[in-house]
Amino acid sequence: MDFMSLLGSMVQSTTASSKTTSSRMSTAGGGIQDLLGSLMGAGQTVKDKVGGDNLAAGGIGALLGALMGGSNSTTANTLGGGMMGLLGMMAYKALKNSMGGSSSSAAASVPQTYTQATPQQQANDAEIILTAMIDAAKADGQVDQAELTRIMNSMKSSGAGQEGMNYVIKKLQGPMETAKIVSAVKGRPELAAEVYSASVMTIDVDTQAERNYLDKLAKAMGLSQDVVNQIENLTGGQSYAC
Question: How many domains does the chain fold into?
């Protein structure tokens, strides 16, 4: 299973369905666009810290276009690689900022992840991110047939094969996999931050069930409230209030 391409297809299907999410991320103060500007523009120091050239090659620019308005010309594999690059940068920034800008072991591990990860590790991480996005999509209840059809049609248009779509259907209709996610991020705070970032980016947090899910996920993965706040600020996310 090509989880990087499958992740890219899922990114396209979820961001295309949520103009509110795209809008809030595009206007988030000091958020995603600033990170991408640093990665793709003059911020060489930041780029070097996380292997910026590799991230650029992975499609960060294309990812911005897909997140903020969609790009049918972007391949699923490129979009998946771009998504992983963006999540890595967000994790680095959130972990570092939560330490008051000082260099922490957690934040320092992010560059190492992207310069030394094997293709198999990258695929494993992409699978966990994909699992997190699917769980977030059904956090406020079972995905209905209309939503399932929309996601499948979007994935098919992005080039996803039948095997990949069957995998996502099974996951969407199955139970939540929080325990699997928590086990995968154990001892890897940077991956935990990436998982939380992907979860927030997948949905508009406009129900109490979604807010409760995100809170429980963050706690189970051992993320501090400060890191959570940093991530939600980067994505322009707002806490749901009853």
Answer: 1
